[in-house]
Fold this sequence. Notes:
The protein contains 10 helices and 13 strands.
Amino acid sequence: MRILITGGAGFIGSHLAERLKRHGHEVQVIDLKIDGSDCRNIDLGTLHIWKEFGVVPEFIYHLAATVGVRKVLEDPKECIENNVESLRAVLGLGIPGIFASTSEVYGKTTGELSEDSELRYSSKPRWAYAASKLIGEHLARQAGWKTVRFFNVVGPRQNSDYGAVLPQFVSQAISGEPITVYGDGSQTRTFLDVRDCTAILDTLRDREFDVVNVGGGYHTTVRGLAEFVRDAVSSRSDIVHKTYESVYPKGFEECRERKPDLSKLRSLIGEFEYRNFHQTVTDLADSLKEKYEPVCR
């Protein structure tokens, strides 16, 4: 197939592009220029011109988005506008696709989260990203698209620029710096290796569904994650704690627990064998020692 990935030079997008190319698909990528690489920003309007030359994609993975807790808190308006308008432009092409949403849409709801769980959050800026993704889900559904809700996708080539906890911990551990845990560390998260994520995305392209949780692999407290990372990379770093107030701008709220109910995902793809999380951490550590520059053509 000819497949378009928006955000295709990013963390998940670049891994997905590599997998699809290995499986014989023709991959088209749209992304911003990143870290001095030769990835170029392509106006979504040019996609309409592609139809005249017979190179219009047959399927789209829409992964592009404004992300990062700090960035969202600093400019929630930009986050909402970018995420909603970019999706509207892509949906306007009339091509089938998958929209990348997030576990953030569940907000402060706790317990094992199913696709039908209540979505609960306040009007504080912290939840602007979640709100933009929820709007996106409604737009995608009206267009006949499928939606995946990612739960903490991690792995090689990920960095901590957008606030991701695992690359922050790994980077601190391999450099010998204190591993910094925000809050008391008892909050829980579920982590999914990016290579498992892209395998699931590849499979879901041919499945029929409206929205599904995509996660699993390793569930732990944040303090437990810090200890796991320290052991996995044989670090002697201390583990220290900081309050959220000392790290994030005003308006931040934390979710204490986030664990996906994956029964719907299993009904779509069957039982899935996740990567060993120790390998995920060591592969991420190796990638952080080298500068990765995504290349798209």
